[in-house]
Amino acid sequence: MKINQLEIENVKRIKAVKVEPALNGLTIIGGNNGQGKTSVLDSITWALGGDRYRPSRAQRDGSVIHPYIRITMDNGLVVERKGKNSDLKVTDPSGKKAGQQLLNEFIEQLALDLPKFMNSSGKEKAETLLRLIGVGDQVEALEKKETDLYSDRQAVGRIADQKKKYAREQVFYPDAPREPVSPSELIRRQQEILARNGENQRKRNALQQMQAQSEELDRKIAGMEEQLADMKAERKRMASDIEDARKSAEELQDESTAELEADLANIEEINRKVRANLDKDKAEEDARYYERQYNELTGQITEVRERKNALLDQAELPLPGLSVNDRELVYNGQRWDNMSGADQLKVSTAIVRKLNPKCGFVLMDKLEQMDPSTLEEFGEWLTKEGLQVIATRVSTGDECSVIISDGYIEGQAHPVMEEKKTAWKAGEF
């Protein structure tokens, strides 16, 4: 629903104006400061929005005539405020009377108070849009999950960094064995070597005994010629045994226990190095574990963001190029504070219209931020979208649809507003 015609008298700075705004596109009410431009918008807001928008000093200073507002909508609905209390009267095309409740069905409050939306926080704007397209709860749940995952990843990342630093600080001994050395194992190996060496010594002792026996026989041979034949036979047998024993003895090699003795002496130092290496291995494994956790959480965060973006991509947004990122409105890649004033107005208008499709108009005050070419572009967009915007601008240029001066529309015939006079008659009270 749009505004066909509005008539205003004695509201704030307005004396008497009559405006027929374009049904589609931009209608600019121009004029210098203090001439009544904003009073026109305030009158529309009061008439359609209800008494909560009533100006604190609604009646024009210096006038005893009560405010009068009449707005005719494009469907024939007539909204009037007049009389001492500025009572509301709503008449539908069939002549039936109605009230504020009917107006509330098609009037979007933000269309009457666009600065309320534009001055809201980035989060509030985003929440309005998300609620509008019906994905607010879903996006909120996904963003909460994303926030939780981000917190978890941040905590894991800190632990991973600590583990990496701790692992780098650990001393490592490349020459140390992989496992701690057991003293009992070294002693057992030492005893085995000593046993083998004892056997070798026994064989050496046997060799010495046989050599001694051979020498004793030689002495007996010298002294006992009569027993020579027997002794030679015995010596020959003994010589053969000696030869066998010598060959066996020459093949024997004693094993050194020096290394084991050194290990036994240095076992605490060796085990200290082993433990240090094991600590470093554990620290490195911990660092790798938390790094894997960090990467997994990063993947989950990416997945949540992709689901959120997919949800927004599928939603029916009120304006091409408009989206929500990190609870902020984004239009053509720019956040709200980086948008031009024209883009901010375009985004606000599109969202306000989407909030209540029955409301086909939006009021805008102080449109000075747009240059003439931007105004023209904005007006063309409004016409294309079938939207009606009634705006004010401190200007008297050709871009203005009407010019207000001293409470009147320039070029309009000024209606004669007679002050009500009381006629006194004698004897009457």
Automatic annotation (TrEMBL):
<protein>
    <submittedName>
        <fullName>RecF/RecN/SMC N-terminal domain protein</fullName>
    </submittedName>
</protein>
<dbReference type="Pfam" id="PF13476">
    <property type="entry name" value="AAA_23"/>
</dbReference>
<dbReference type="GO" id="GO:0016887">
    <property type="term" value="F:ATP hydrolysis activity"/>
</dbReference>
<dbReference type="InterPro" id="IPR038729">
    <property type="entry name" value="Rad50/SbcC_AAA"/>
</dbReference>
<keyword id="KW-0175">Coiled coil</keyword>
<dbReference type="InterPro" id="IPR027417">
    <property type="entry name" value="P-loop_NTPase"/>
</dbReference>
<dbReference type="GO" id="GO:0006302">
    <property type="term" value="P:double-strand break repair"/>
</dbReference>
<feature type="coiled-coil region">
    <location>
        <begin position="196"/>
        <end position="314"/>
    </location>
</feature>
<feature type="domain" description="Rad50/SbcC-type AAA">
    <location>
        <begin position="5"/>
        <end position="251"/>
    </location>
</feature>
